[in-house]
From TrEMBL:
Residues 11-156, 723-754 form the Aminoacyl-tRNA synthetase class Ia domain. Belongs to the class-I aminoacyl-tRNA synthetase family. NCBIfam families: leuS_bact. This is Leucine--tRNA ligase. The lineage of its organism: Bacteria, Pseudomonadati, Bacteroidota, Flavobacteriia, Flavobacteriales. Residues 804-915 form the Methionyl/Valyl/Leucyl/Isoleucyl-tRNA synthetase anticodon-binding domain.
Amino acid sequence: MKYNPNEIEEKWQKYWAENQTFAASNNSEKPKHYVLDMFPYPSGAGLHVGHPLGYIASDVYSRFKRHQGFNVLHPMGYDSFGLPAEQYAIQTGQRPEDTTRVNIDGGVDKEGKQIAGYRKQLDKIGFSFDWSREVRTSNPDYYKHTQWIFIQLFNSWYCRKEGKAFDISELVKVFSEEGNVLVEAVCDDNVAIFTAEEWNSYSEDQKEKILLQYRMTYLAETEVNWCPGLGTVLANDEIVNGVSERGGYPVIRKKMTQWSMRISAYAERLLQGLNDIDWSESIKESQRNWIGKSVGAMVTFHVKNHDEVIDVFTTRPDTIFGVTFMTLAPEHPLVSKIVTIEQKAIIEAYIEKTAKRSERERMADVKTISGVFTGAYAEHPFTKEAIPVWIGDYVLAGYGTGAVMAVPCGDERDYAFANFFKGQNGMPEIKNIFNKDISEAAFGAKEGFELVDSDFLNGLNYKTGTQKVITELEAINQGSGKTNYRLRDAVFSRQRYWGEPFPVYYVNGLPKMIDAQYLPIILPEVEKYLPTEDGLPPLGNATIWAWDTKNNEVVNTDLVDNFEIFPLELNTMPGWAGSSWYWMRYMDAHNETEFASKEALAYWESVDLYIGGSEHATGHLLYSRFWNKFLKDKGFAPTEEPFKKLINQGMILGTSAFVYRLEGTNTFVSKNKIGDQKVQPIHADVSIVNSSDELDVEKFKNSREEYKTAEFVTDENGKYIVGREVEKMSKSKYNVVTPDDICDEYGADTLRLYEMFLGPLEQAKPWNTAGISGVFGFLKKLWRLYFDDNGLIVNNDEPTKDNLKSLHKTIKKVAEDIESFSFNTSVSQFMICVNELSTQNCHSRAILEPLAILVSPYAPHIAEELWSQLGNKESISTVAFPVFEAKHLVETNKEYPVSFNGKMRFTIELPLDLTKGEIEEIIMKDERTLKQLDGKTPNKVIIVPGKIINLVG
């Protein structure tokens, strides 16, 4: 009976689907375990072999936990809103909802492309997902709840005193009874103080404007990353080297009115929560750096000849007497107010140039020094000296106050800036306030110095100096101690079509929430997915996009009368909206009235294991933790943290192929014939290159019109040899290997085992299709333990000690490896075990039945078939995991090397409990000993029980 993976896998995938084998129950007596994958964005490119790595790992773990008796929730869905689908729609003239659906379900798109579909690709790999709970973030029955969460945020404020969010009605009550003077809230800067009497006298519009300064989500004019090419605002993590990650379009800094979320309110809780979760230290550190807590002081500098002040946050207030100049971010609102006429043109040119660089690029670029003197001066709070004010792009408007008091003697970047502009107008000599030499570099340490030339701080160190300065600043009303965070409020608007509509309409220009009972507000049809001719977002093209407050429905925009019918919000929510709470929807995916019932939330609580890519270290993971904490405050989420344990899988890299075109020609030279010639390397499709690195020249010529007339310089054997390089697997690099092809040729179990075998889960590793055949050979060898050409050969023979030893070594190793996520060494152990059992000619049911269970998490299809063929009626998926028995690994015999005068001549296996005398008696009677001694008597017999036997003389 031959191993036929395609037939077996189709059979069991059908069985699992029909029997809902992996459907989790919300009412189980079993202990729960929730395993989650970061769900995919369903692009038309489909899956390549790098995508399933984390899914296979989570599936192995999920299956293992079922074998251990857990009720496992292992769901899957699609993060289906976002830029890629919209860009594709713009390019091809298709509706984003149509392309998204085809990309998920498969079919033929408008351009006639055959799309495999994510669902079919995932099913083909044999995942134990609970598909009954599938979610798609772009489905109205899902984003209805995303809109509801937005409303909860709008109707909430954050109390600093209690350290949590409360309903906005409680704040309104405080305002009406006490005013806002004693309110400790996270709110906009410079909120005006008012009494209860004043509040109660305000109009409804005035009250609403004030409340917007306190709400958890609010409208504000914000510096954003504007991408004209995409027509939308981008998050920092969507920008690479100053251009959009999607499409490579230039990005500029621009002020726009945007919805924002007060994630900054949760900065300290987000920081402290990292101590309570099992995440890698590198991911935690990424989040700590992003949150960026720093303790120091806020210092106020008056601008000379202006009625303006510059507020600066500094972590080194002790260095205040070393301030040599000040630097503002180019976007700082004061720049246009204080710049002199002489400097105006150069300042404006510099600002325009800087607007083309992203914040991330400016932060990362520590080598480039640039800046311009404004011509203005600030006044030192103590000495009253004039301090020149510059602008420089190393200062960011979104960090601190967007202003720096530059102390070059104590900061490397300020030191480099001061020396670069040394001698120019507006750049004084560096002041040294440390009893240290700064002729070569700044002194940045916080210990090992005394302050000098620092007035009342002379002789003090960092700690006492800091305390003293803060006291004196407070005394002259020009500063105070402060804890600051780098974390900025998150912009929550996108000027795009394919996203969640806001449940917001506008009355007198002020936002109003649509009542939750009328959700979802469904994305309308539009003819164009580009912004309108007058620059409005794509929803400005919608003809039916106004809110009728009388009938509570969306109506034609022509009916807007600003009396009963009002305009709806034209922006949509960002890509991270739907992914910031999706794990809770899986808990109760078909609940029509709530995002999840209290009972379901109480049962599943939070995710026990989360697996996904490290590229989400800050964006998605930080926003998810923020929303979870907010929903906990409001009594909806049961836990403070959403994900107990997080593992970031490494990337599977592709082996790219390169052809080499002679510069300025259409001639391609074989790698081994290049010599000193100047060539341009070009990616070639790996599918037309064989394992010997030979290019199929004719197929390459036909791959693109421009190559049809190309000439090829081959080697002596008439072959064109390509170059190879390991890099990210990507469609643009033509190095993609699809899992479908591997499954068709070798089977999904081979793919699963091979991906786990490649190396440690968290490390990057190159894909090499040549290695697949070895894993396929292992599965065939496993099969032959159970079957020969005539059928099943499993018997009821009593297993030998060696059989049991091989099995229990494997039970122990596999259980330990899965718990520690060392999946690659488990696969190695399977191979060792099968080799040993084959050598032992083992066909015992007592060994092979538990072996099938051990293999099941990794290669579930073959395991199900073996289990069934052994006569079992139920699925193998929930059968108890074999129990390790240490007694089978206890050695009772020892194979001794027997030496004569120190030279080993033969070995003998003896029981370990023999005495020295018993061992000597056996050895002296052995025929091989008698032959070696040839009638002689040894002078000495050295025996170390369990180690050596040596006959001397």
